[in-house]
């Protein structure tokens, strides 16, 4: 009895899935398979959870800067127009002073970062972290192959 029930259920499932297959193939006959490809998946934002080893400067950078200076951030996008290495973390040519000035004065399309948001002490830690680069955490994944050693 139990076995028979199982077989029946299995047969029903098979029939169902057969229907589904038939449905999709029938449905897509009219339209070009636009829905099938779909948009590319949203890139995942970098959060502190991705950098469990991060020390103070890096943590602060992830908290306050990486939303614009991550792989797909607008800072990275705009810097890519004029720099070989658009990711701040991947650079070896940043000085702490330059980073602090850019953050406090704003630069180009980057807004000023006020002290209420990032204190002087915090900004110094971020600046020291960036000045100590390049950091392996800042390497582009697959998207932009080797910006190389260009600095
Ligand atoms: C709202 C987005 C945004 C945030 C947040 C942000 N930036 Fe920027 N940043 C930009 C953009 C956009 C540029 C490119 C400016 C341009 O060239 O027009 C930029 C440029 C820079 C540059 C200049 C790089 C160069 O070589 O000229 C530095 C340094 C920098 N950002 C540091 C930081 C730091 C440090 C933080 C965090 C405290 C931070 N940014 C947060 C958007 C942002």
Can you describe what's shown?
By secondary structure, the chain is an all-alpha fold. It has a domain at 54-138: Cytochrome c-like domain (Cytochrome Bc1 Complex, Chain D, domain 2, Orthogonal Bundle), CATH 1.10.760. The chain contains seven helices and no strands. It starts with a helix and ends in a 20-residue tail after the last helix. 21% of the residues are buried. Bound molecules: heme C (HEC). Heme C is lined by residues 64-65, 67-69, 74-75, 78-79, 83, 88, 98-99, 102-103, 107-111, 113, 118, 126.
Layout of strands and helices, then pairs:
Blueprint: H1 2-27, H2 34-37, H3 56-64, H4 66-69, H5 74-79, H6 96-105, H7 120-131
The site of heme C (HEC) has 23 residues, from helix 4, helix 5 and helix 6.
Give a brief outline of the structure:
With 151 residues, this protein is mainly alpha-helical.
Sum up the overall morphology in one term.
globular
CATH architecture descriptor text of the domain at 54-138? Orthogonal Bundle
Which small-molecule species are bound to the chains here? heme C
DSSP strand content:
under 5%
**Helix proportion range:** 40-55%
Low-confidence region ranges? 19-30, 142-151
Q: At the first level of CATH, what is the class of the domain at 54-138?
A: Mainly Alpha
């Amino acid at each position: 009895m139990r076995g028979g029930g199982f077989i029946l259920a299995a047969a029903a499932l098979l029939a169902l899935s057969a229907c589904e297959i038939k449905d999709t193939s029938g449905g897509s006959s009219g339209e070009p398979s636009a829905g099938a490809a779909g948009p590319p998946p949203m890139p995942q934002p970098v959060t502190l959870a991705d950098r469990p080893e991060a020390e103070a400067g890096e943590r602060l950078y992830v908290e306050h800067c990486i939303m614009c200076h991550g792989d797909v951030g607008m800072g990275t996008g705009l810097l890519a127009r004029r720099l070989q290495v658009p990711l701040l973390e991947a650079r070896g040519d940043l000085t702490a002073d330059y980073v602090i000035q850019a953050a406090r004065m704003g630069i180009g399309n980057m807004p000023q970062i006020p002290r209420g948001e990032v204190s002087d002490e915090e900004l110094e830690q971020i600046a020291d972290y960036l000045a100590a680069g390049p950091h392996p955490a800042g390497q582009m994944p697959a998207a932009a192959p080797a910006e190389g050693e260009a600095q």
